[in-house]
Write a structure and sequence with these properties.
Keywords: Kinase, Transferase. Belongs to the FGGY kinase family. By secondary structure, this protein is an alpha+beta fold. The chain is about 40% helix and about 20% strand.
Length: about 525
């Protein structure tokens, strides 16, 4: 039995999965690391903690492989998009990894949108203007931390740093580069205007390579710790969103992947780059003739966690004492409330929002509260609000790529039958839940096998996953959701004029008091 390893460097952990070459999972490791939020809007991670977690993950799954009767064919990488690390001349970090969730560049992202430069850059890079991007972060660092900015010799992401530690080679795949806001998707090269706006030069960035490129010659010390032949090929791989589409077999035109984990996304694959004239969706590279168009949201499962911790603390404690899952208990409570939560609407913008409004100042709200509403209504409204928001992303996506033919859904939410049915009802589409629990790692592994010639076509991934179940929309919910979704959308637009004001108040008053 031969093996392929998929490594998924995520926002909170590295997931490392050992697959056989038939795409079946043979080993799994999930290694966590902290997210540092020392000041308002910060969201950073320690790159060396991530590197150690990656080494531990590889070491763990290598023990699961029967190397007497097979070999490791390769290792392929996925990574979260938009991270930024400043390195000195010796490739040592000057900063932590500034993640996609960091909003400190909001002022400069707003300026780019307002002065028209942002629209010009979006039309060339396919990356919406937002503080998540390295483009915005670089402008912020250059203006607000000029001494630190001047010390930097290199500007890289977490995948580039990890691979440099392993191989001593600094290079970046097209997919990760595509998400920086610095990469021209039509020229497949760093964009001169974006570099000028960011205030950097191309020789401060890694060498660009395709997602199917490979590296060999791992540092012997690390290879020894992991227990791997140092000549094992490592495939560059892509970013996590495009690979999640591949991992759930959503790579044919019209097949939409909906992911709800901590955050969420709606994505579809096209055979060439496509741009939204309104700038609401991204366009990211996967591999030759495969581009992923879609929209990410900040607020997925993290909202459900907030509801549990802040509104249902007693139930959470009870669930722990009974040895049952607290989220399962909450969905049981929510299921007792009718579709539409008796007219209670929740905007789930607890951490700003990306698609489709791209507003880091967005804030959450309940609308329509009356004395007849209970906490049960509030938890159901929160779950519905997350799906309403994803549906608005789908509406924007339809304008660019057309109506979906089917939906493949994955992520932590897929464990909840209520949430799966809610997705089918609000989207009014059949929703298929693939069996593979780690779609992104499977996508990385599949791309790696393709790069190594072990498979001839990416569509082989359909043989690697099964269908756990299909949820059909329930017509009895149509009246409620068809009435409420337009109200949700109109409210989002009307509230947007006040998001900046309330966010500024919180930064200057609430956070200032917290510091004291």
């Amino acid at each position: 039995m031969d093996y392929m390893i998929g490594v998924d460097i995520g926002t909170t952990s590295v997931k490392t999965v050992l697959y056989d070459t038939a795409g079946q999972m043979q080993g799994y490791s999930n290694n966590l690391y902290p997210l540092y939020q020392d000041v308002p809007d910060m969201a950073e991670e320690d790159p060396d903690e991530i590197f150690s977690a990656m080494i531990d993950g590889l070491t763990t799954v290598m023990r699961k492989a029967d190397l007497k009767n097979g070999k490791i064919q390769g290792v392929s990488f996925s990574a979260a998009m938009h991270s930024l690390i400043l390195l000195d001349e010796d490739h040592k970090p000057l900063t932590r990894a500034i993640t996609w969730a960091d909003n400190r560049a909001v002022k400069y992202a707003d300026e780019l949108r307002e002065n028209g430069v942002g629209k010009q850059l979006y039309e060339k890079t396919g990356t919406p203007i937002h503080p998540m991007t390295p483009l915005s972060k670089l402008i912020w660092l250059r203006n607000d931390q000029p001494d630190l900015f001047k010390q930097a010799r290199w500007f890289v992401g977490i995948k580039e740093y990890v691979l440099y530690r392993l191989f001593g080679v600094l290079q970046e795949d097209y997919s990760i580069a595509n998400a920086t806001g610095l990469f021209n998707i039509f020229k497949m090269d760093w964009d001169d205007q974006a570099l000028e706006v960011a205030g950097i030069t191309r020789d401060q960035l890694p060498k660009l390579v395709d997602t199917t490129d490979r590296i060999t010659g791992m540092n012997a010390d690390y290879a020894g710790v992991i227990g791997m032949d140092p000549q094992t090929p490592f495939i560059m791989g892509a970013s996590d969103g495009p690979l999640a589409n591949l991992g759930v077999n959503a790579i044919k035109p019209g097949v939409v992947a909906v992911t709800i984990g901590t955050s969420g996304a709606v994505r579809v694959v096209t055979d060439k780059p496509k741009i939204d004239p309104k700038g609401r969706v991204f366009c990211y590279y996967l591999c030759k003739d495969h581009w992923v168009v879609g929209g990410p949201v900040n607020n997925g499962g993290i909202v459900f966690r907030w509801v549990r911790d802040q509104l249902f603390a007693p139930e959470k404690l009870t669930a722990e004492q009974m040895g049952v899952d607290s989220y399962d208990l909450l969905t049981e409570i929510a299921a007792k409330v009718p579709a539409g939560s008796d007219g209670l609407i929740f905007h789930p913008f607890l951490g700003g929002e990306r698609a489709p409004i791209w507003d880091a100042n967005a804030r959450g709200s309940f609308f329509g509260l009356t004395r007849t509403h209970s906490r049960a209504h509030m938890v159901r409204a929160a779950l519905e609000g997350i799906v309403y928001n994803l549906y608005t992303v789908m509406l924007a996506l339809e304008e660019v790529v057309g109506k979906p033919t089917s939906i493949q859904a994955t992520g932590g939410f897929a464990r909840s039958e209520l949430w799966r049915q809610m997705l089918a009802d609000i989207f009014e589409q059949d929703v298929t839940i693939p069996e593979s629990p780690e779609g992104t790692a499977l996508g990385a592994s599949t791309l790696g096998m393709y790069a190594l010639g072990l498979i001839d076509d990416l569509s082989v991934v359909k043989n690697f996953i099964g269908v756990a179940n299909v949820h059909h929309p329930n017509p009895e919910t149509y009246d409620a959701y068809r009435a409420l979704v337009p109200i949700y959308i109109r409210l989002s637009r009307q509230l947007q004029s006040e998001y900046k004001n309330i966010a500024e108040y919180q930064r200057t008053h609430v956070h200032a008091k917290a510091k004291k």
